[in-house]
Structures are given as C-alpha cells and as structure tokens.
Amino acid sequence: MEDAENYSIRDVIESFVEQIQTTRKMLFGITISALILAPLAIGLSVYLVKHEHFFFILDEYDEFGTFLVILLVTVIIVSSIWLVLGIRQFAMLKSWNSRYSNYIKKKEKLDEKISASFDLDEDQET
Q1: What is the pTM of this model?
Q2: In the chain, what are the helix, strand and coil shares in percent, each to the nearest 5?
Q3: Which of 23, 46, 53, 123 is the most exposed place for a label (fewest CB within 10 A)?
C-alpha cells in the first residue's frame, strides 16, 4: 500500500502518456499496412476486371461469374475505405508525434528550471 502512496500525479500522467506512445507505435504499424495492402488489393482487383478473359468467365460460368463480380466489388470498396482510414490515421499519428515531441521538450525545460531553482542535481535522490 505504501508504493501506491508514493506515486505522484505526475508519475501517473507520465505512465499514461507512455502507454499512449506504445499504442501509437502499434497503430502506426497498422496504418503502414493499410497504406501498402489496400492499394495492392485495389490494383489486383482492377487488373482482374480488365483482364481479357474476365468477361468470358462472366458469360461462361454464371454463378461463379456473379460471385466473382460481387467479391471484386467488395474488395475494391473495403480496400478503398481501408486506404482512406489509413491516410486519416497517418495524419493523426503525425500530429500526435509533433505534440508529443513538444510535450517532452517542455517537460525537460520545466524539470531543468525546477532543478535549477532548488539547486537539485539529477544524480541526487530525494
């Protein structure tokens, strides 16, 4: 119970910010995958639709052709949505990164100011 009492609000906020930073890194990986895989899926679907045998398959195989058209349209729609979300997420993460950098700089300046005003060294423990 004593350990819980030793935590300051600043420590809790720092822990929270570090957790958000970890989550941001994971989201960045997901965003990069969306920016790579979505255009690849769209390109492959468009290639299949423009292929010279595509309409032959639609005419020759009725049920399979219908299923193939539905599948390709679904892939294009979902991949387009995934791409737009990936771009929006990338912009948001970029904004977060600059705000986080500003936060770290301000925190370091404040720590230095407090240390200087009370003549504290970084190596001393209180």
Answers
A1: 0.62
A2: 85, 0, 15
A3: 123
